[in-house]
Amino acid sequence: AQSVTQLGSHVSVSEGALVLLRCNYSSSVPPYLFWYVQYPNQGLQLLLKYTTGATLVKGINGFEAEFKKSETSFHLTKPSAHMSDAAEYFCAVTSGNSGYALNFGKGTSLLVTP
Amino acid sequence: DAGVTQSPTHLIKTRGQQVTLRCSPKSGHDTVSWYQQALGQGPQFIFQYYEEEERQRGNFPDRFSGHQFPNYSSELNVNALLLGDSALYLCASSSANLMNTEAFFGQGTRLTVV
Description:
Chain A is mostly beta strands.
């Protein structure tokens, strides 16, 4: 089975600063990787996904992530944080081992300060 | 497009009772998955329905059951409710028989068991 580890349950950045949210995965087969965002009292919205091909993936709201097989990582970045980016972020993985189920990390809460 | 809709949005039940949650998938989607998100945790996969059959199941007891109707909508039933069943229940829909297809999430149903 595959799993995801998100390092840092809480991350705080200043408005305009770089956002870096870390995600490491474990999978014995090529993974499909996702980042979702969850605003308070809302469902999950897909930010970006990696399936195959280009390892640098661009998503919505200026976010991007790079799939690094050698490091088993899929970290999420954004060059300049906005106040509206404050939310809970989840990394998820699926592959042949889990079939169609998304395996989520525990999430990282992003706080953006003025 | 209404997206994925779930009802009710909030629900309070007593221990031992039974509950039914409902989900209408995004237009054009034929696959519905259910997730349980405990407070401060990432979503956990319960099961997935496709062509009115349970295609895959996570590590949840038989008290959790589901159904998919011909119009692709779905129900999640939980019997003999426990305090630990209190959580946000998320429905996700997707299309086609592909693992890397994007899953669209509903707003969730907040279940409180007292």
